[in-house]
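Quick one:
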Amino acid sequence: MIEDDSSDCSVLLIDDEPFARDIIAHGLAPCRHSLHYESDPERAIALARDGGVTVALVDLRMPGCDGFEVTRRLRADPATEHLPVILLSSEDNPEVKARAFETGANDYLVKWPDPRELMARVRYHSGACLARRQRDAAFISLRHSQEQLAASQSALHQAQKMEAIGQLTGGVAHDFNNVLQIIGGNLQLLKLVGAISDAARGRIDMALAGVERGAKLSSHLLAFARRQPLQAVVLNPGRLLHEMDEMMRRVLGPRAAVITEIEPGLWSTTADPNQLNNVLLNLAINARDAMAGSGTLTIRAANAARGAARDPEVPDGDYVMIEVADTGEGMTPEVLQRAFEPFFTTKPTGQGTGLGLSMAYGFVKQSGGEIVLRSEPGQGTSVRIYLPRSAGEAALEEAPPRLPLLGGPETILVVEDEADVRVSTCGILSALGYQVLEAHDAAAAVAIIDGGRHIDLVFSDVIMPGAVSALELAEVVRTRLPRAQFLYTSGYAEGVLTHEGKLDASVNLLQKPYHPDALSARIRHLLRRARHAPAASYFGLT
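Output:
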């Protein structure tokens, strides 16, 4: 007889007569198998639940718990409901056989069957059991793969949607900044040179306050779109949180508790401190509104080392984790899915712009980190920000001196394609006493430089139409006017001055819309520096 080695059969024999084990073992000898014997039906049923058995041979007539009852119990248990059962009986009675199949048996053998028949029946039922288990495992694996695919498709769809919204908001913010610059520049020019009454001055100040609000809105839009040039420096988040503690308490109000937990030895990270400050402030405001002015706000900062347990959305690496958690009303799954979208808010009209979380999302992504949002209705909300660890040490910042509005006799070349922006900017600089030249694009600016005019500083927009780019203009200035300073301005400088969204520290950029005070201070700073700095070291293009 040829031995079968195609598969292993794991046979459980349940019989109150020990000699039955020897008979079954002899009958199955040619077949590769493992045989487990148990005389106690209760222990046998427990053994079958382990999952290793592929077929059960059950004696029909046993004291206490007969084969019918054993079969019923096996069928009633989810762990063994599909285990093949072969009833062994000395009764070749059709009624008994019928009852056996009604009870749930898969087969019926009269004692003692020919070894060939026994082996064939055991192999058949054991093979069917293994095939069923493989099929079930394949279905589970397929369902798991489908769930993973659905989750990946949902994440991809969300990422594509956020990217599309980001591109739209970035373009809108750019044009919006130019409009704000026209309005704000002309209003400031009126204040500088116009003989206006106190009433008119009050109206102008109100309008300028509106311009500032618009500038903040535009800044948030650009942050969400990841098109906000970041002035990233190495900073200590713990120090920043300590400095913000009093402000957080004022934002939350007297009825709310603020708990700050900062891990000793907190690592440094590289980020824009002003933007990070804005993000944390917006998260605190959201928490205050979610808690209706009362509750507990917990701010934690901790090291998240490579390989340590963290949120599954975060890739492996060393991070500084900052968490802002509240005990507010929480979010439903539907709201949670849209929480990062700009202008999406559950607050009543006029009580929120819906830009707080979207701005945080854009800033963190642009900084190379991850942001994780967790929330359940009635359980509060947790926002965790993971920023990559920096190998450098944070430097102590010195507060810049507050300078009055100053001008000078120097010559400034203003390069701006938006005529209304150019006119208002030139008017402000002229009112400050500067000699002002103007060009509508970079090519016209090059022509002025080639004409031999003395120029102390070039103030140029970044994004302009024409054959010559702002960067090419900067190179012309570097080579032909090595003592001149170069100051960029833009409402949207993605991909031109920034590298991976971060602005080089040596690049001088004044973002639109800019205030005359900021413009005056930046120009005076650069012109003073020119007197002491070597040629061609002025704007990071050496």
